[in-house]
From TrEMBL:
It comes from Emergencia timonensis. GO terms for biological process: potassium ion transport. Gene3D superfamilies: NAD(P)-binding Rossmann-like Domain, Regulator of K+ conductance, C-terminal domain. Residues 1-118 form the RCK N-terminal domain. This is TrkA family potassium uptake protein.
Amino acid sequence: MRSILIIGLGRFGRHLATSLADLGNELMVIDKNEAVVNKIAPYVTSAQIGDCTDEIVLKDLGVANFDLCFVCISNDLESSLVITMTLKELGAHKVVTKVNQDLHAKFLLQNGADDVIYPERDMAIRTAMKYSAQNAFDYIELSKHYGIFEIAAPKSWIGRSLTEINVRKKYHVNVIAYKCRDQIMPLDKEEYYFSEDQHLIVAGDKKNFHELIAKKL
C-alpha cells in the first residue's frame, strides 16, 4: 500500500483515484471544484477542496509525507508547471504529471516532474495496435519499439511445441505466457504445445510482431 496524492479531478484524475483506491492505496485527492470533490469523497481516504497553485494550500497538505504525487491538470500548462515545481520545492518524493503534448512534457521534466504520462496518446496507441491486427486482442507498450501483445495462436502452431516451431529464432519474439479462460499462465517449459482455445502473450519488437501477424500462419 502506498500513500498517494492526486491533484486535479478531471475525468482522468477521477478514474485514477478510484483505480488506486481499489488497489488498497491510501489516497488523498484535491480539486477546486467542490461538487467533484464531494462526489469522489466516499471512495478515497481523504478529499480536499483547494487551489493547488497556492503554495500555502500545498504546504498544508504535507506533500513530503506522500510516496507519490500525481498532477492531473494537463489542459492548463501554467498551473501544471507551477504545481509541479512547488511540489518538488516542498519536498515531494516523486511527482508524476499528466501531459497532452511533447512541449508540455519537456518543460515539466526540466522543472521538477520525475515522470510524465500521456493517457490519451497511450490509449490511442493501444487501440490502434489492438484493432489494426486481425488476431490481436490487447497491447501494452513498454517502450517506443517494444511491447507485450495478446494474440490468438496461429493455426499452423496448433498441436505443435514451442521447441518445434522455434518461435524466438524464426519470428524474433518471445512467447512468455498463455491465457485460457481469463487466467494467464506463465510459459516456463520449452515443450509447451499450442492449443486452439488459448491466447498467447507475446513480447517483442513491434515490427517483428506485425511481421508475425502479417504472415497469416
